[in-house]
Amino acid sequence: MAPTPPVLGSLTWLPAAEHPELLGAPVADALAQLTGPAWVAEIDDELADTAAFTEAYAVPAEASANCVVVAARRAGQTSLAACLVLATTRADVNGLVRRHLGARKASFAPQDVAVAESGMAYGGITPVGLPSSWPVLVDAAVAAADLVVIGSGTRGSKLAVPGAVLAALASAEVLEGLGQPLPEEPAAPAPVPAAPVRRAPDDSDVGWGERPAELSESDRRYLEDRPPHWGSD
């Protein structure tokens, strides 16, 4: 009996082995090597990047994993590796990854190199189907997850695979602390309060340049008591 497809976000998940047309060629070829189930869901390829994907399809970021390609330099030679971490973290490339690979320097591989060497689309690179010579470093939190959403080799779909299945890939090595917390965004500066409006001392009842609509009794008497030709020659 086939496993029940997951309920994850607003996507319709299908058995990946039955829909190779939704997968990158290296991924479709590697499915038979998995030790457990995998499902695929079609998405808009404009929404493949993690932030856009999680918002559009209501898939929690903590249920998604990012696969990044790392170039490690040692003794004049450059080798490639993949790191798989939850989308709520980032790979510790310059620390744990560099030390684990015994490299003098480690950095994210250029986009064109990652695409050419993996045979997958940028934004869809996934640990399933990578060259066998690449170490696949899997964060312990990914390995422990019931299900994680990863790339499918193309930008037009996503795979959902149990973490234990990814940890069991032939080239996989599970590392504790591979995924580090994302840096907190700086708090927005507090708004500067508007300066109080200062009014003229005698402006509490009428605006500048205005006169009261009703004359006071003393003003009225003053006007009435003036001589008829007061102020004239």
Report on the structure:
The protein is of the alpha+beta class and 233 residues long. 21% of the residues lie in helices and 23% in strands. The protein has 7 helices and 11 strands. The strands form 3 sheets. It has a 5-stranded mixed beta sheet with strand order 6-3-4-7-10. Strands 1-2-9-8 form a 4-stranded antiparallel beta sheet. A hairpin with a 2-residue loop joins strand 3 and strand 4. The longest helix has 9 residues. It is globular and about 100 Å long.
* Widest sheet, order of strands: 6-3-4-7-10
* Biggest beta-sheet profile: 5 strands, mixed
Class by SSE composition: alpha+beta
Approximately how much beta-strand content do the residues carry? 15-25%
Runs in which pLDDT lies below 50 for 5 or more consecutive residues are 202-212
Number of strands: 11
* Series of H and E elements: EHEHEEEHEHEHEEHEEH
Cα(first) to Cα(last) distance is: 117 Å
Instruction: Please state the CA-atom Rg, rounded to the nearest Å.
Output: 34 Å
| Tally of alpha and pi helices | 7
Proportion of helical residues: 10-25%
What integer is the average pLDDT?
87
Give the overall shape: globular
